[in-house]
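[DERIVE STRUCTURE TOKENS]
===
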Amino acid sequence: MRTSHLLSFLCVLSATGFLFPQIAKAANGDRTISVPMLGSTLRLQTRNRFAGAISAVTWKGQSFINSRDHGRELQSDVFFNNYGVCYNPTEAGSRANGAGDRSSSVLRAIRVRGNQLWSVTQMAFWLQPGQSSYPPVCGNHTYLHHAVNRAVLSKVVLHKHLTVGLRGFPNVLRESLTFDVPAPYRSATFEVLTGYMPPRFSQAFYFHPRSMRLISAQGRRGEQAYPVIRSTPDHRYAMGIYSPGLPQTDWPHAGYGSADFPRVVKWNCVYRYSPVAARPYHFLAFVILGNLRQVEQTMHRLYQRCTASGCPRR
């Protein structure tokens, strides 16, 4: 085949999605996964407007995720060099997008097969270049009040592999997350996973691995070493987070956070590194859903499984 004809043929294949099927799907981040869970159906959605970040999780008619703007959702982000939000690549997109229909992050690829989802997202900075910081200071750099980044789009690429429902753990989401960091930094705080939830999830609990029981947060918020569970007051709906690499040995009193805001509540799991090399950083996190008792029991079994014989993979 002549070279010109070969190039034309490759262009046609690429345009129709036969040559690079993942790239062909990258323009559309609207995906839905539905699986049976504890006598009902768990429905999970990603949206193009959030560059493939998880924008909805619903079970028994209850919404577990708040997606009012691009800073909420069930998503990942990272803070470099202690600049806080002033240098903060974010999966769903920047603050400037607000409740808009588009994300400043770029969804490079997405694929769903059965109960699994794979996506690749180039993360946008939370603040636009020159934009004022909120909170009004840039992390530990209290003399700075504006974005440090000089571009809208960062060079950090997030690779996500999500499995909805595991063998023996039908109410667990397994998130395998890799941040490709393109350059060295003095430090990084990886908010590996954070869930912004409706304010109805007003109660917070900590799961104590030694006693294998819940501890009421009793109004205490912030970051500490134990997995977090957020629950409705009637305990009919709850969501918990567990990451087997936490707490880190050099940060023994931190790793899991919980916070309350006027119209939204959140949990997260956080890893810290200093210094940071230019390389991929891989993390594993498990999100557990159900009523409070079901989440507690599942977290107990999951913790025992991960510490005894290795975490479930599918």
